[in-house]
Design brief:
Helix content: 55-70%
Oligomer: single chain
Structural class: mainly alpha
Number of strands: 0
Radius of gyration: 26 Å
Strand content: under 5%
Largest sheet: none
Length: about 220
């Protein structure tokens, strides 16, 4: 069959037409435009922290995170990958506030480092905005080996090694770990397990008793 302009085409098939140029780059199904990407990613992370905090690692699913964030689960996989990777991204953001803890060692005389560190750590736990993601981290790490490995990797690389680097005594890594264990153990009993009277004790009283122990780990030969 021949058109008026002499162009031939197979019978029954309409001429091919080019799609209208909208000025947008084609996106894979389910992906938001670039202008929405940052907001969507932050919303997923916020939902992930809430889900991990309330349910723990084992009972949290990518589908549940997506539902809480109001997105398709494919978007969660697109931005973060597996559930383990979502967990790591969520706690890394939450863990950012704790990364500055090593600076507490340098901000003042050495004889006050124990109190500064204790005050810093309990300050994070006493703040509801930072306590929620930390609860997600600890609850998940205690109950799941995968979550524990992620937590251990972040703590070792971003916190303990930096503290140890500022300890000018033998066995700096062991000292840093013992100091951290003292503070994390108290936080676990007070905020997660809620053992009384520690759970309801005045935070200043706790700092006064814990700080000398932390001081000893970091500075006593």
């Amino acid at each position: 069959m021949t058109d008026a302009d002499g162009t031939s085409r197979r019978r029954g098939r309409p001429p091919r037409t080019e799609p209208a140029d909208t000025g947008e780059t084609a996106r894979r199904r389910g992906r938001p435009p670039r202008s929405e990407s940052a907001d969507t990613r932050d919303r997923i992370l916020a939902a992930a922290r809430e889900e991990f905090s309330e349910r723990g690692y084992d009972k949290t699913s990518v589908r549940g995170i997506a539902k809480a964030a109001g997105v398709d689960s494919a978007l969660v996989h697109h931005y973060f990958g597996t559930k383990e990777q979502v967990f790591e991204a969520a706690i890394e953001v939450a863990f950012a506030s704790a990364v500055s803890a090593p600076d507490a060692i340098a901000e003042g005389p050495l004889e006050g480092v124990g109190e500064r560190m204790a005050r810093f750590v309990f300050g994070i736990w006493e703040n509801p905005a930072t306590r929620t993601p930390l609860l997600a981290i600890l609850r998940s790490a205690v109950n799941n080996d995968t979550a524990a490995a992620v937590f251990r990797r972040l703590v070792a690389s971003q916190l303990l090694r930096r503290i140890a680097a500022q300890v000018d005594l033998p066995d700096p890594e062991l000292r840093a770990e013992l100091a951290a264990a003292q503070l994390v153990g108290c936080a676990m009993l007070r905020y997660v397990i809620k053992v009384e009277p520690l759970a309801s004790a005045d935070v200043e009283q706790i700092i006064a008793r814990v700080a000398p122990v932390v001081q000893g780990h970091l500075t006593v030969p």
